[in-house]
Task: structure prediction
Amino acid sequence: APRSSAPNSFAPTPVTLTMQIQSFCAQAALFFLPLPAIKYTETSLTLADLFLIPAILLNFSHALRLRAFQIPFLLALPLNLLSHMLDPDGKLVPILQMVYLWGFLIPFGWCAFVNLSPQRIAYLLLIASGLSCIVAMGQFTGYVETLPTQKIIDYKDSSRAAGLVLQCNSLTMALTPCFLFLPAVRQASLRIVLLLLLLGGIASTVSKSAILAVPGLLFYFFWREPEKARVLRWLVAAGVVGLLVFNRGASLAELVDKLNAVVEFRLSNADTSIDDRTHLAQVAFDYSSECLLLGYGTEGTYTGMTSQGAMGQTVHVFYLGLLLIEGWTAVSLTILGFLGLLASLWSLRKY
Result:
């Protein structure tokens, strides 16, 4: 009798309908994640969440064996929950938001994207960010209206744009790491177009935090861009076109005056901006002495900060605000989790 043939161990894994649905949801979620302004006005869930939740659940088998970086996040969750439950000003929606973010997305959100290649991830994020930048430039020049879900800061005869993000500073933060995705784009022309869009989007926010994007931009250009001369030529051409659009038919002298007015206005508010943030930080540190184990919760932090003349906002620094919301212990665990994630990616050479 002939020998039965051994199964081919190198045969590709058949693609099932579940895998196709998971891949579609993961890519759709990744595309919409940088565009949180696309949502129904009355809810906190964005369009990205509607795809992200099934993408995580369909790939949840990857989370059955806990990684080291997940453990601190999960240990911080009960403390975070207690801080919200004991908040006398607490409401149901902030509690549900906290459980969703810190009990589901932070420790398990990565499961949605493990089957996507780094290049696919870079393309999706860059294309979505480029679309947001186009909207931002239209908002800044007055050609595109503000979305109902956004908080836009009006500035003289234009606005500090937010693109398809909720606020102008949030757009700057979302675009800051995108320069490091550009080397994944192989076509030089597409890479240049995306670079120009990113720069235009950041410029449209008129945000001082744009300075934080400079290191990534320089690293990309000097160490990862093979066609520097071509990129520079396009930057100069785009700069001239941008000035003409911003000019709107005015003379060169009027254009210079307008640009000087923009710079002077932003610089004139620098001292006030620093004083406001220093005041916010001082108030937060005063309150933090009572947050060794538990925090005030989301609503309690907002109430406490506004009662101290914090201009209707909470702390301007993420971790400092988180310190009041969930307390020192949970924040320490959260930072430990992020450091563990960073170390694991570094060990895998996934810089």
Notes: The first strand starts at residue 153 and ends at 155. Residues 1-9 have pLDDT under 50 and may be disordered.
